Amino acid sequence: MSNAVSALNGKVATANGVTVRDCGLQGMISMRGTFEDENFFTVLSHIIGLEIPDVRTIVSNGDRSVAWMSPDELLVLVPYADVNGIVAQIEEALQGSHFLAVNVSDARSLIAIEGAGAAEVIAKNVPVDLSAGAFGEGMVRRTRMAQVAAAVWCDGADSYKVICFRSVSTYVFDLLAQSAKDGLVGAL
Amino acid sequence: MSTRLSTGGRLINRNKPVEFQFNGKRLKGYEGDTLASALFANDQMMVGRSFKYHRPRGVVASGAEEPNALMNLNSGGRFEPNQRATTQEVYDGLTSTSQNHWPSLEFDIGAINQLFARWLPAGFYYKMFIHPRAFWKHVYEPFIRQSAGLGQVPKEQDADVYEHFYFFCDVMVVGGGVAGLTAAMEAAKSGKKVLVVEQTAAWGGRAVVDGGLIDGESTEAWINQTLAKLADMPNVTLRDRTMASGVYDHGYVLAYERLTDHLADKSGARHRLWRIRAGQIVTATGAIERPLSFAGNDIPGVLLAAAVRDYVVNWGVSVGDRTVVVTNNDDAYRTALALKKAGLSVPAIVDAREGGAGAIGAEAEAAGIRVLKGKGIAKVKGGKRVTGVAICSQAGEGAVLEEIACECVAMSGGWSPVVHLWSHCGGKLVWDDAKVMFRPDVDKGPTGADGKPFVIAAGSANGYLGMAEGLADAAAAGRAAAGVKGEGAPSATDAAEKAVAPVWLMPQGAGPKKRMKAWLDYQNDVKVSDVMLAAQEGYESVEHTKRYTTLGMATDQGKLSNINGLAILSKSLDAPIPAVGTTTFRPPYTPISMGSIGGSARGDLFQPLRRTPMHDWHDGNGVDWEPVGHWRRGYAFVRNGEKVHDAVNREILNVRENVGLLDASTLGKIIVKGPDAGKFLDMLYTNMMSTLPIGKCRYGLMCNENGFLSDDGVVVRLNEDTWLCHTTTGGADRIHGWMEDWLQCEWWDWKVYTANITEQLAQVAVAGPKARKLLESFGGDMDLSKEAFPFMEWREGKLGEFDARIYRISFSGELSYEVAVPASQGAAFWNALLEKGQEFGVMPYGTEAMHIMRAEKGFIMIGDETDGTIIPQDLNLQWALSKKKEDYLGKRAQERSHMADPKRWKLVGVETVDGSVIPDGSHAPAPGTNANGQRNTQGRITSTYYSPTLKKGIAMALVANGPDRMGETIEFQDENGGLIKAKIVDPCFYDKDGEKQNV
Amino acid sequence: MLILHCPYCGIDAEETELAAGGEAHLKRATVGDSDAAFEEYLFMRENKKGVHLERWRHAYGCGKWFLAARDTATLEVYGTYPAQTQEPPQEVKDAIRAKHPGWAWKENA
Amino acid sequence: MTNTRDSVPMKRYSVFAVAREGLRYHTGWGRAWRSPAPKKKYDVIIVGAGGHGLATAYYLGKNYGITNVAIIEKGWLGGGNTGRNTTIIRSNYLQDPSAAIYDKALSLYESLSQDLNYNIMFSPRGLIMLAQTHHEVRGYLRTVRANELQGVATKWINAEQVKELCPIINIDGPRYPVMGGLYQERGGTARHDAVAWGYARACSDMGMDIIQKCEVTDVRRENGKVVGVSTTKGDIDCDKLGMVVAGHTSVLAEKAGFRLPIESVALQALVSEPIKPCMDVVVMANTVHGYLSQSDKGEMVIGGGTDSFNNYTQRGSFHHAEETVRALVETFPMISRLKMLRQWGGIVDMTGDRSPIISKTPVDGIFVNCGWGTGGFKAIPGSGWAMAELMAKGHSPLAEEFDMYRFREGKFIDESVAAGVAH
Ligand SMILES: Cc1cc2nc3c(=O)[nH]c(=O)nc-3n(C[C@H](O)[C@H](O)[C@H](O)COP(=O)(O)OP(=O)(O)OC[C@H]3O[C@@H](n4cnc5c(N)ncnc54)[C@H](O)[C@@H]3O)c2cc1C
Ligand SMILES: NC(=O)c1ccc[n+]([C@@H]2O[C@H](COP(=O)([O-])OP(=O)(O)OC[C@H]3O[C@@H](n4cnc5c(N)ncnc54)[C@H](O)[C@@H]3O)[C@@H](O)[C@H]2O)c1
Ligand SMILES: Cc1cc2nc3c(=O)[nH]c(=O)nc-3n(C[C@H](O)[C@H](O)[C@H](O)COP(=O)(O)O)c2cc1C
Ligand SMILES: [Zn+2]
């Protein structure tokens, strides 16, 4: 897989103290199943090493995270190279039950937004309350970013991640970079 | 003469002079000046011409309500028409020109209209220019249009950028006057998150100019302290130069922040449109003074009384040495006193009330001002500026009692609460007879998602014009908005005032001549006589009057004129004012730039552009792009010296002879998995998918519930419980949504999961006789031979170093493989194909070549052969309609009489007799005409091309009884109104037996 | 600019995150049903000036369909509930009746 | 201040009349229409004094001599969609039945000012529908050829011709360059209010009663036949009833005991502040969703898309206006520095195939005219003509295909035939 490149190929932009950065190749597995199902739950936490997150949250440990996407969908983040192995493990372990595990690493892009004012840069584009009190570390929100779908989460002070579809990653990156360039609001 | 006073001007910084231009003249002002105050400082009384009669016009107001002083600002990419001089701050280098005159402001040809004003009353054009018919378009309308319009037209691309910002708060306070600040403070004390916006650059609203004490301090000191306290609170956000432009359903508010309009340095966003969700909105938007309707009330130098005092106190400018104040209420006396204090002369206060004013009246008289009671203005004298007024009895018809020389008339017809934001979303108003105003009906505010009111009006916006009562109301509003209990408010005392008198026409008995000179709507030249005419002619509804006279439709949206106009209407109809009612308040409160509405969505960010992994390669290699939804696909890859169509033909021939590559990554790919997946797909597709063997592919059709074809594509069985459905490029998201819709809302007990993995894979169609050789040259672990890998099957494995899944399907009629690799490897794979393909003559081909090749094969194309009204039967696709299935989406619909009608047009191939290409969209006429005299038709072309393979025109068409008419020649329209003969043939023009694709 | 509560995400989502899907609780007519029944299913829509039961998808969010009881004249939302149900839950019915005392659910009108 | 509700005989409008009146301060103008109290019974009641209702009444009188007619309006005449639309007029529709009725309307519009003796300011300044994708190009070419056989004059023009007709357009937009356009020279605009007022005046002059501020609250029937209506001004009887209430059709139909394939949604429009003339043609850009023209007063009149949910509030969600403005800023860069002056909404009635209904109904004597959705202003004279014919004679070739029963048969008149998909 020496040929693999992320859609944004390492792009970085910084303005007004906010950095918008391509996170490169990121392993992502879209998991669908019944969360209430004990088996699903145990298998997943056994293989990933993480609990199933609560509604609109993300749980992380080292280079692995699991984010709540919908009542029957999770997004599992693992190192890019591990994805196929993990999918195979899950399929093996859950054989016979109704679930879906697909590799979506290449279908999406992961972008980091960091620095004081990062929340404002995002808030120019999403109809979500990103003020510290309302959207803290460990929270995830799937939403609309300007004209496309995106998932946003907070993974530390002034540090956010955005996942969008691969085909629009340039759009999302440019949008965020432009928002940073146009200046901070000073309201969040 | 208007001039800058040597002292005063709390908002200007006399240490920071700035230079700006007006109509080419270089003028001086100070930082903190508005364009209007700076123009007054330079004795520029006349600032524009009115819309219809081109009357000379001066500034009348000091804020957002200004109807007259509209300017063209700046030039080039920063040119902006219709900017109000009263809200534009001056800065070094600002250029401005006045509007609506030619050749110049002072000498304007259009002013000739004034002479005909008598024949140009409201609605005159409805009664004229009717004959002769052609004259309207060619003579009258061009003339009328030429003289209409205000500002000049921007010519260049906007040089600025704009942005949006989402903000959420518990309480939003609109208006930074004393009421707004009080409400904000009360709400903020509760700990709730509070946002306060003020449209101007200065906080405090009217109070500083009006004077008085709050909590024992001067209003200015109190405002500064309160602001400082609010600024210190972490739960409070304060924004000046930010206008709440509209209140929308469910507590959505737009606010318009002007970031650089007042600066010489224009870097960064120019405007920021805040999209606010507020739990409760407090509208402390103040009140607007009304003009009085007397003859000549539009002559430059006639201003609102409060504006005159604003100019003196805030900006240190006097409009004239001698100001006559004319009023129906006490507040205007403040102007007289303020002028006196500034050392200016006030020859008289003309008070329409017999009894004159309250305490402040005595104060004025004590200051030596002559107060004329029960009097009015018969007429203002002057042309391009005021020279004096003629005084009369308010009660009479206007006999002149005396004339008073002056340069300025300060008029006040009372105050109207700013109820716009309250009303935008349905808040109701009540007429207050005592206060002579419409104010919010507090029990009938706009309601939100929970059915409860979400707007609270406060202070003078709620009809409490006195300081003490206004502060009390505002404090209560702040608490109510925050949902807390409490008591108390900043303390103030209101002097005893005499009630305002309803004076709608001055003098009360003014005759037609005067009424024709008494302006209601300054910008649109609507006079008292026009409203009366509307009533007389039966345009009785206030909405009819508005539209017939254009009252309130100008850029100020009737902030000054509406109440006066409807009062005149009510008198004309002899109906009470509340029965007449107001027109509808609509956003925005004051006009907002289109740029700000668009926000950052311009240029590259106008819309998302979806790129395939190979996008950059295409971009650099002669691609002619075609937008498909938000994707861009290569229509053709043009080489040096080629026209697009040369490229298309070359690409086709190369596929037919060698091998071509099509970037098919945009095709939709949806995983459907689960124990009920087969059953589900059998419902979705017209044909049977549950029986598809693992390892195989099947072409499938999807219809909507109306029976119409909506999408098609190849379905792949990946394993026992997993299928992969390919859709059209435009169909991917739609079909995925469609699947989820059925699974979640109809068959929610079926065990099926779907996933849209369109972008996970880069997909390339490798097509042409040398396709196999090219792929084999990669090496890997898959046997691609005819025997090991037959048509309509798929394989997964290594293709060289690439992880690939290959489908042996063909849309071109040639030996063809569609290869999917992970998207991150797409670019590399594409490059590898080009490199390894060199020896086989590989070339990329675009969507047009693909379209033509499929047409040569007689394959249908969603969007060409279908248009949302076509059922599979029309396209002879009965073979794909499973007879074994009891039901599928669209089946019942196709049983309806019109769908089962044998007369429906059916798909055939068409070939011109002379080999030419039939034009796109061509129809085949049939003899005779229908009941409406339209020519009968018997068919139409769905796709038509020049086939480089066959070296002639080929087409597909829907023709009445088509399949039964093989070999028959019929006629289609040509491009020039004539007809082309064409033969009905089989739609498959190329390799009917499929020998090429099955090698 | 509506806000509707997504019963899955537990948030008040604004309209731009949502996709409207028309009348809720339609009964699919199909093969075997009369032309009139089929027409009813496909075209005849409740279009009340008042209470409207309707489908919404949290399209930019969790992707799930849910149902809403909304007033088309006041835009008040009486409640939202999951799509996997044949009729509005009792609390939603109660909320509607609090404002429209005569309102009856079509199945037991 | 005098106002008389007595009927002053209608005065013919002309430049001479205006000149004469000018001399006496216009005191001699009578009412444009009377404001009578309702009679007990009329031969025909039309509910809804919008353009379509008024035009129906007008042609009932003019073409069939039926003048014992009341037009009942719950608000003020012309205050529905007729008074709030972006006034685009064209007739180059694709499907035969549409082309027939819209072209009838257009030809009536061309002489309507003279016919009504009221200047409705019909302005045939031309209308361009931009083609910005190959798919649109093919769609419009199809329309051109269809129109040729329908006798509707329209033509295809290339990008340069578009630019020539509309200099402020950016034909080289980076995202969707203009590839050409469908141009109807006869298309244009008219003064929307004047259309309603002109018809109202003419109806009133024929002796018809226009009853405003009177809401029809029930439809009274006996033995499957209509006998009258109940209104906020009392019961009024009639032999025939025409329902022409646009966005409120479902509400009224329910009172008459039948259902229609209609949904009511908000459609929005907005205007800019006025500027000097810069655009002497109407442009519609369907790929990016927006249309633009300049009114005689100078505002840029902008229309966009509909909300997707049922709504009776005459407001809409701002994001639709936003999408429209975004599209137009891209297509006409100069509007970026203009300002939005006012935005508003109207409630439009959308049918299952987006084409109108002009039809008999299950109730004997009741006729319905609705479903004009986002595009019925341009149809007003043609629709009134056909509806009058249907009501007077029981049959109208122009209306035939717009029967309300077509949905049951699966027979649609679909103008939005562009599926917009390609492989
Ligand atoms: C924003 C917008 C832009 C548009 N742009 C265009 C365009 O550019 N070109 C175009 O051709 N079309 C356009 N249209 C569509 C066009 O406006 C309408 O199709 C047309 O005006 C409909 O006319 P009407 O007479 O049927 O309805 P309306 O004018 O709405 O009249 C119906 C009348 O019925 C009355 N009514 C309702 N219920 C009752 C009752 N119970 N009792 C008594 N009276 C009742 C209403 O008050 C109303 O006055 C647009 C519409 C909107 C909203
Ligand atoms: N006695 C009288 O006749 C009379 C009349 C009017 C006002 N007043 C005096 O005026 C003061 C009233 O105080 P108040 O706070 O109620 O009103 P105010 O007029 O002082 O303040 C209102 C503020 O709201 C701002 N505003 C208005 N619309 C806005 C919008 N859409 N977005 C953002 N900002 C907006 C204005 O710029 C202004 O600063 C008191 O001092 C009162 O005595 C007296
Ligand atoms: C073609 C057209 C042009 C308009 N021009 C103006 C205008 O110049 N000024 C204005 O205030 N409103 C204008 N309007 C909007 C009306 O004021 C009003 O908003 C619209 O008719 C809807 O009515 P409502 O807002 O009273 O509900 C225009 C409306 C139309 C249809
Ligand atoms: Zn959700």
N-to-C terminal Cα separation of chain D, in Å?
71 Å
- The CATH class of chain C is identified as Alpha Beta
Coarse morphology of chain D = globular
> Can you name the CATH architecture of the domain at 120-188 and 264-351 in chain D?
2-Layer Sandwich
What is the global morphology of chain C?
Answer: globular
Mean pLDDT reading of chain C: 95
CATH architecture of chain C: 2-Layer Sandwich
| List of distinct ligands in this structure | flavin-adenine dinucleotide, nicotinamide-adenine-dinucleotide, flavin mononucleotide, zinc ion
Q: Please provide the ordered H/E string of secondary-structure elements of chain C.
A: EEEHEEEH
Structural class of chain C: alpha+beta
The CATH topology of chain C is given as Folate-binding fold
Q: Give the radius of gyration of chain D.
A: 22 Å
Explain this structure to me?
The complex is a heterotetramer of chains A (about 190), B (about 1000), C (about 110) and D (about 425). Chain A is α+β, with helices and mostly antiparallel strands and about 190 residues long. Chain A has 2 domains: about 10-25 and about 105-180, 2-Layer Sandwich (Gyrase A, domain 2); about 25-105, Heterotetrameric sarcosine oxidase (Alpha-Beta Plaits). Chain A has helices at about 40-50, 85-95, 120-125, 170-180; strands spanning about 10-15, 20, 25-30, 60, 65-70, 75-80, 100-105, 110-115, 140-145, 150-155, 160-165. In chain A, a hairpin with a 2-residue loop joins strand 10 and strand 11 (about 160-165). The model of chain B has no long low-confidence stretch (mean pLDDT about 95). In chain B, the strands form 14 sheets. In chain B, strands 9, 10, 13, 14, 15, 16 and 30 form a 7-stranded mixed β-sheet that branches. Chain B has a 6-stranded mixed β-sheet with strand order 43-44-45-42-36-46, with helices on both faces. Chain B has a 6-stranded antiparallel β-sheet with strand order 48-49-50-47-52-51. Chain B has 7 domains: about 5-125, Ubiquitin-like (UB roll), CATH 3.10.20; about 160-285 and about 415-480, FAD/NAD(P)-binding domain (3-Layer(bba) Sandwich), CATH 3.50.50.60; about 290-415 and about 495-510, FAD/NAD(P)-binding domain (3-Layer(bba) Sandwich); about 520-580, Arc Repressor Mutant, subunit A (Orthogonal Bundle); about 615-665 and about 760-855, Probable tRNA modification gtpase trme, domain 1 (Gyrase A, domain 2, 2-Layer Sandwich); about 670-760, Alpha-Beta Plaits (2-Layer Sandwich), CATH 3.30.70.1400; about 895-985, Elongation Factor Tu (Ef-tu), domain 3. Chain B contains 25 helices and 52 strands. Chain B is of the alpha+beta class. In chain B, helix 7 packs parallel to helix 8 (about 330-340). Chain C is globular. Chain C has helices spanning about 35-40, 90-100, and strands at about 5, 10-15, 20-25, 50-55, 65-70, 75-80. Chain C contains 2 helices and 6 strands. With about 110 residues, chain C is α+β, with helices and mostly antiparallel strands. Chain D is built from 12 helices and 18 strands. In chain D, helix 2 (about 50-65) runs parallel beside helix 7 (about 190-205) and helix 2 crosses helix 10 (about 380-395). With about 425 residues, chain D is α/β, with parallel strands linked by helices. In chain D, a hairpin with a 5-residue loop joins strand 14 and strand 15. Chain D has a domain at about 120-190 and about 265-350: D-Amino Acid Oxidase, Chain A, domain 2. Residues about 1-5 and about 420-423 of chain D have low confidence and may be disordered. In chain D, about 65% of the residues are buried. Chain D is globular and about 65 Å long. Classes of the chains: A alpha+beta (about 190), B alpha+beta (about 1000), C alpha+beta (about 110), D alpha/beta (about 425). The interface between B and D is large, with 134 and 124 residues. Strand 33 of chain B pairs antiparallel with strand 16 (about 340-350) of chain D, so a sheet runs across the interface. Bound molecules: flavin-adenine dinucleotide, nicotinamide-adenine-dinucleotide, flavin mononucleotide and zinc ion. Zinc ion binds near residues 9, 58, 61, 62 and 64 of chain C.
